[in-house]
Every structure is written in structure tokens, then in C-alpha cells.
Design goal:
By secondary structure, the protein is of the alpha+beta class. Helix content is 29%, strand content 17%. Strands 3, 4, 5, 6, 7, 8, 9 and 10 form an 8-stranded mixed sheet that branches. It has a two-stranded antiparallel ribbon with strand order 1-2. The two termini are 28 Å apart.
């Protein structure tokens, strides 16, 4: 569904009646308020009687180089946040990625939208991918360094397993929405936070998008399947830094998955050949062809394109 990545000027986004200008202003105001709060707290802690009782407010912690700094501990009531999901759609066999183009604003974006009531985030990601791109997408398991704990059965596996957890969470704030068409103000609307969970999906080489999958307000969206380098270029030209970061990470995780699976397959082949040689020294009843291949990766045998840097 429409998001801040899909519109410029005063176009509405996320179906919330929020404009890009309002979003940018809200983010700037929030940053200014946070900076001012920290500055006032520091001044209060260093002057006046009882200054020793004023706690210091350290700068936000910086996580990995792939993340934004930490945000203060927060709690948002139901009326003050939205939860959504987005999808990076890759075609591993060709090294291409799906980007969408809004004919009204000429912006590039990824499928993304709000979670429906009772819907899981995974269902939201798959639904939005289909509604906006026309592709029936499957999740792409990757070696994402998730902090989610493994299930008891997966903990017994002899090597790290790929997973389909989100690779990113993005957050943006919106200001109070505009009045309704009848000029009445939306009750209780004070703005809020929009949290998006980003997943990675895959499509086969021979699939084609359905042209009738779009919702009525999404019919101006055009699906493009393009090489990763072209996607990086157009997102950079559009100054879509957040989407660019997410796309490059998804691509790098795919390259890591393919390379890791190929190395594991080579190791399995060596073990099978060694076991076959050992068995043939005592009996002729065992041959390499009798070995099980159920551990082979579905990506290991694909003709994957060169994994050069998309940057």
C-alpha cells in the first residue's frame, strides 16, 4: 500500500492521510525535541543546587554499521502506532529484483503495507507482495543473524540453518492526519509511529506477474524486474537511502546463502566419497550412488550470477 517511499510532494502515504512533507517535518521535530531534551538534561545535571541528583542522558548507542542508533525506551498506545510488513522480492536464478514504479509520482519503491486485523506479519508481507507486484512470492530462507531463538529440533541440527525472519525493521513517525472530507477532525489522532518488518522473498525464473492483482488505489503501480545493479542505481538516484540499505542487505544475504550452500555441498560430496571408498575396501555392496542426497540445498545447484558488489 502507499508509503512514504512511494510519494513525493503532498501525496498521501500509508493510507493514513499523512503526507511526505508532514512525515519529514515530524521526523525533524522529533529529532529536535530529542536533542533539546538531552541538552536541557545535561545542563540541569551540571548547574544549580542538587545537580548531582540529575541523571546524565548519554548519546544513543550505536549498534552495527548496518543499523541506525538506538532509540529511547518507549511505549506507544494502540491509537498511536501502525504495524506493517514489506517484501524484497529476488529472483535468484537471474540475479534480478522486483521494484515498483508509481506512475503518478515517478518514485521507485518496494511492496509494503499495513497489517490487517488478525493477520500475521508474514501473511501481510506475502499479501502486499502479491497485491502490489502481481507475483506469488515464497519466503527465501537466508542466513540472517536473527536474535530469535531456535526451535528445540533445529538446535540439534549439525549446522546453522537458514531462516525467514525479517532482515530489517524500519520506523517512521506521522503527524496528526488531515481533517476528513467533511472538515471534521479525526478523533483522538495525535500522530504516531509506523513500524515495518522487512522480509525477503523469491520467485522462479519462469513466473509472470498478474496484472489484475492491484487494489483500486494501486492500479498506477508498474512492476519492474531488473538486475540488482540497475535497482541500486535507480534507488540511489531517487535518494531512497533506507530502501537502498534494505535491498543491498537482502542481496548480500542471498550471495552468502548461495556461497555457503555450495561450500556445504562440496563438503558433503567429499564425505560421501570418503565413506564409499572406505566401504568398497571391505564390500562391493555400497557405492557412491547409494548415498542419500536429502541435505542438498535448493539453491546450491543453480546457475547463480557472479556475486560481484552491486554498489
Amino acid at each position: 500500500m502507499p508509503t512514504q517511499h512511494k510519494h513525493i510532494g503532498n501525496q498521501r502515504s500509508a493510507g493514513t492521510g499523512v503526507t511526505d512533507g508532514q512525515q519529514r517535518s515530524a521526523q525533524t521535530n522529533r529529532s529536535s525535541r530529542t536533542h533539546g531534551h538531552h541538552q536541557r538534561s545535561h545542563q540541569a545535571g551540571s548547574t544549580g543546587a542538587g545537580a548531582h541528583s540529575q541523571p546524565e542522558h548519554p548519546a544513543p548507542s550505536q549498534f552495527s554499521e548496518d543499523s541506525s542508533p538506538a532509540v529511547p525506551n518507549s511505549a506507544w498506545y494502540a491509537s498511536d502506532f501502525l504495524v506493517g510488513a514489506g517484501m524484497v522480492i529476488l529472483q535468484p536464478s537471474t540475479g534480478c529484483i522486483v521494484l515498483l514504479r508509481d506512475l503518478a509520482t515517478h518514485c521507485w519503491f518496494l511492496p509494503k503495507g499495513r497489517k490487517d486485523v488478525g493477520e500475521s506479519l508474514e501473511q501481510t508481507a506475502l499479501r502486499e507482495a502479491y497485491e502490489e507486484s502481481g507475483f506469488q512470492v515464497q519466503f527465501l530462507p537466508l542466513y540472517t543473524p536473527t536474535n530469535a531463538p531456535l526451535s528445540p529440533q533445529d538446535r540439534l541440527y549439525p549446522w546453522v540453518l537458514p531462516n525467514t525472519e525479517p532482515i530489517y525493521i524500519s520506523a517512521m513517525s506521522w503527524r496528526p492526519r488531515r481533517p476528513r472530507a467533511d472538515h471534521t477532525v479525526r478523533p483522538g489522532d495525535s500522530g504516531g509511529e509506523y513500524l515495518t518488518f522487512w522480509y525477503v522473498g523469491q520467485i522462479a525464473e519462469d513466473v509472470r506477474p498478474r496484472l489484475d492483482a492491484n487494489m483500486p488505489d494501486e492500479e498506477r503501480y508498474i512492476t519492474h524486474l531488473m538486475p540488482i545493479k540497475d535497482a541500486v542505481r535507480v534507488l540511489r538516484e531517487d535518494h531512497e537511502d533506507e530502501l537502498l540499505r534494505i535491498v543491498i542487505m537482502a542481496w548480500n544475504l542471498l550471495v552468502e546463502r548461495v556461497n555457503s550452500d555450495r561450500a556445504r555441498e562440496r563438503e558433503l560430496v567429499r564425505h560421501r566419497e570418503a565413506a564409499a571408498r572406505a566401504a568398497s575396501s571391505t564390500t562391493d555392496s555400497v557405492s557412491p550412488s547409494a548415498s542419500s542426497t536429502h541435505d542438498e540445498s535448493p539453491l546450491a545447484g543453480q546457475d547463480f550470477p557472479a556475486s560481484d558488489d552491486p554498489l
